[in-house]
Specification:
The structure holds two protein chains of two kinds. Helix content of chain A is 43%, strand content 14%. Chain A is of the alpha/beta class. In chain A, a hairpin with a 2-residue loop joins strand 4 and strand 5. Chain A starts with a helix and ends in an 8-residue tail after the last helix. In chain B, 75% of the residues lie in helices and 0% in strands. In chain B, helix 3 packs parallel to helix 7, helix 3 runs antiparallel to helix 10 and helix 3 packs across helix 12. The radius of gyration of chain B is 24 Å and the shape is globular. Classes of the chains: A alpha/beta, B mainly alpha. Chains A and B meet through helix 1, helix 4, helix 16 and helix 17 of A and helix 1, helix 11, helix 12 and helix 13 of B.
């Protein structure tokens, strides 16, 4: 009864005030108890199933770019497990969490679903995923990547790929403008000026999609805020400092200077990520401050293009790279076929499938025994830098969603011509203090 | 069977016939509505079934929340301007349709067609036209008018007026049809008598047309005001409430707080507050405009 009320309240809120997002559902077992089915699921990685059993699994993700490779992997799984079918549902990224939450609370959780690896601990803390601690792949995870899918000593999912932030650029556009890869922030500004003088937009940003702004910010946070004080996040959590006392104000000022000098393409708040990628791919813009997945997107649009990578440097030429698990996959502990669902998760972690996925997604591995064949310059350059640099997690992990949103809206406001940096910082500090309890730290 | 018993049986049958629809209606509307009041005093996150009672804390927080304050300001500005400007545009179109134009049948259809489109479709179409690299700016740049190419949804002071203009454009035909119906009920004798008395067009409009149109004004103002206060789809699709909070409305703020910040209890409290605000405003508006209605 209580559950029905919750689902209906969410639905009513949506129907009455938010016409675009209604959902409903019937009462079903609560997901708050990590079901016995999950505990009793087989530990071994997928051995071919001999008995045919009619099992229909649902798999939820948000990325249409991986649809093809997922279909290939799923088909292999189906071939090895007669009687199993898998239906893949793709929900747009900006609605993914909302749809997933509502489905889980309504007792209609997908059997297997992907989640943003950088914040998977939130999902785990709410028991959305079943345990895979004793799965064979866990021992093959590169140390560090298991953290993003672990909680209180248990592992709950497979981190499918690692990605990172930085500057992905068009080498031909750089050559045309006589620009070179900058070693310091001053040189970065010089590079921007040269590109602008050559009639090329220095930085492309698809601001209408919001998430590219978050990855744009992540570059600045890593290089300016974290490089200056690697422990600032825990200090902020403990109340030792405020955002006003970190490099955030200076960071926003730098972003404002980029916008005011037209180094960020005009109209960025009105274009999509795909449009921004296209502009860099065809050379009308030169740089994307985004994630390593853009390499594949750039090459798809312009297979003959020359693209490279460099991390955003600070004034002293130092930098920090944000790296994170991009996608993680887990199974629902309330699934009627939790054992088969878990088997599918383990199947994705097998070397052959993991390699297929990484190559299709142009991503870095999270497993010790998987090395994808990477040929793209930008991906190779990214991998080289990643191996030799200070690497940190995504800055969102240590702040409430409301604070993260204030930072994002702050950059939007700057791009729209607002110059009140103090207001952005005050909003970040206020929302942080207000919602600090919602931060789920890795345990 | 006597007449009383028959009527009672008929009434019972009527009740039985509407029972399925009534049950569905009460279940999906009033049941969650009542529980909304319940959850508005909890810290329910929407991600877990565990929650605590927080008393009136959510309501207190709403008063001091800059996101809520910005969204209230934007929502009321939107509702006010779209109601005032929209009403004037609607009335103007209705007067055009009520004139002796040969093309009035065609115009009536043309004015009304946008109302048939879903706001989602309108948002998608105008998103393509008005985005910085969109159809309009590309056209302007092609004909050498680069200086007129604006970032319509990317400027703090331009984004909300653009949404207002879109809303007025989409719904002007709807209001115009209601006003046209009102205009056609005004007897022509009043105008003839006014003409004989020497009244000009201005006097006729303000002393005959407008007072006798008050019932139509009541309806159009009510729909425009409540529609404006509930605005969600246009900013959600076109601007996501941005840039910054420039187009954040109470609807988008409730969505953001509930579904993105995972503070469903708090979002429900804002929705409950807003429910009462809309109710009070709607009642006040109906009383004000109805008090000015005249019989003829």
């Amino acid at each position: 009864m209580k559950k029905l009320a919750i689902v209906l309240v969410i639905a009513l809120t949506a129907v009455l005030f938010l016409p675009a997002c209604s959902s409903g559902g019937s009462p079903a077992p609560a997901p708050s108890e990590p079901a016995a089915a999950a505990e009793s699921a087989p530990a071994a990685e997928s051995a071919p199933q001999t008995e045919a059993a009619a099992v229909e699994l649902s798999l939820l993700t948000w990325d249409p770019d991986i649809q093809e490779v997922c279909a290939e992997i799923n088909n292999k799984f189906i071939a090895e497990n007669p009687g199993v079918t898998i239906s893949v549902d793709i929900i747009p990224g900006d609605q993914y969490e909302t749809v997933l939450n509502t489905r889980v609370l309504a007792g209609e959780s997908p059997d297997v679903f992907m989640y943003f690896g950088s914040s998977a601990n939130k999902m785990i803390a709410d028991n959305f995923w079943g345990k895979v601690t004793d799965s064979a792949f866990v021992s093959r995870l590169i140390p560090g990547f298991d953290d993003s899918v672990s909680y209180r000593g248990d592992v709950f999912g497979f981190p499918m790929n690692a990605s990172g932030n930085g500057v992905f650029y068009n080498k031909d556009a750089f050559a045309q403008a006589g620009a070179s890869v900058p070693a310091t922030y001053a040189e970065f500004l010089e590079t921007c000026e040269k590109l602008k003088s050559a009639g090329i937009d220095p930085i492309a940003l698809g601001g209408i999609d919001v998430w590219p702004i978050q990855h744009f910010i992540a570059n600045f946070v890593a290089t300016f805020v974290i490089t200056a004080d690697p422990d600032y996040e825990m200090k902020r959590i403990n109340g030792d400092i405020t955002y006003a006392q970190t490099e955030y104000p200076a960071m926003f000022t730098r972003i404002m200077e980029l916008a005011q000098n037209d180094y960020i393409a005009r109209g960025s708040l009105g274009i999509t990520h795909d449009q921004s990628v296209e502009s860099v791919a065809n050379g009308s813009a030169a740089m994307l401050l985004n994630g390593s997945w853009t390499v594949g997107q750039l090459q798809e649009i312009n297979p003959d293009g020359n693209f490279g990578y460099f991390p955003l440097p600070n004034d002293d030429g130092k930098y920090t790279i944000t790296a994170f698990v991009d996608k993680a996959i887990g199974f629902s502990p309330t699934s009627a076929h939790a054992d088969v669902a878990r088997k599918l998760v383990e199947f994705y972690a097998e070397p052959a499938q993991a390699k297929m996925y990484l190559e299709a997604a142009h991503s870095m591995p999270t497993l010790t025994d998987v090395t994808p064949d990477i040929s793209a310059d930008a991906s190779v350059e990214f991998a080289e830098r990643l191996a030799t640099s200070q690497v940190v997690g995504f800055f969102q992990n240590f702040m409430p969603n409301s604070t993260y949103d204030e930072a994002t809206k702050g950059v939007q406001a700057i791009l729209a011509g607002d110059t009140n940096i103090n207001a952005i910082i005050e909003s970040m500090d206020r929302t942080f203090d207000q919602d600090k309890a919602s931060v789920i730290l890795p345990e | 069977m006597n007449r009383g018993a028959f009527r009672q049986k008929e009434r019972l049958l009527g009740l039985l016939l509407i029972l399925p629809a009534l049950t569905i209606f009460l279940t999906i509307t009033y049941y969650p509505l009542i529980f909304s009041f319940f959850y508005s005093v909890t810290d329910f996150t929407g991600r877990s079934l565990d929650f605590n009672f927080v008393g009136l804390e959510n309501f207190r927080n709403a008063m001091n929340d800059s996101l809520v304050r910005a969204s209230i300001w934007n929502t009321f500005s939107f509702a006010l301007f779209t109601t005032l400007i929209g009403n004037a545009v609607n009335l103007l179109l209705a007067l055009v349709l009520d004139s002796g134009l040969r093309t009035k049948n065609y115009l009536r259809t043309a004015f009304y067609i946008p109302c048939l489109l879903s706001p989602v479709i309108v948002s998608a179409i105008f998103g393509s036209i008005l985005q910085y690299d969109g159809v309009l700016n590309t056209f302007l740049k092609t004909i050498g008018l680069d200086f007129l190419a604006l970032d319509y949804f990317g400027k703090m002071n331009l984004a909300m007026p653009m949404l207002m203009a879109l809303n007025i454009w989409q719904w002007c035909g709807y209001g115009a049809i209601i006003y046209l119906a009102g205009l056609q009920t005004i007897p022509t004798e009043y105008y003839e008598a006014a003409t004989i008395d020497g009244a000009g067009a201005f006097d006729k409009f303000f002393k005959i047309t407008l007072p006798l149109l008050m019932p139509s004004i009541t309806i159009v103002t009510f729909m425009s005001l409540t529609g404006g206060l509930k605005l969600f789809d246009l900013p959600f699709i076109l601007t996501k409430g941005g840039p910054g909070n420039a187009t954040q409305t109470i609807g988008t703020a409730i969505y953001k707080i509930g579904f993105e910040y995972n503070k469903m209890g708090y979002a429900t409290a804002i929705a409950v507050l807003f429910f009462f605000v809309i109710a009070i405003l709607a009642i006040a508006q109906l009383r004000l405009t109805r008090s000015r209605e005249v019989e003829h």
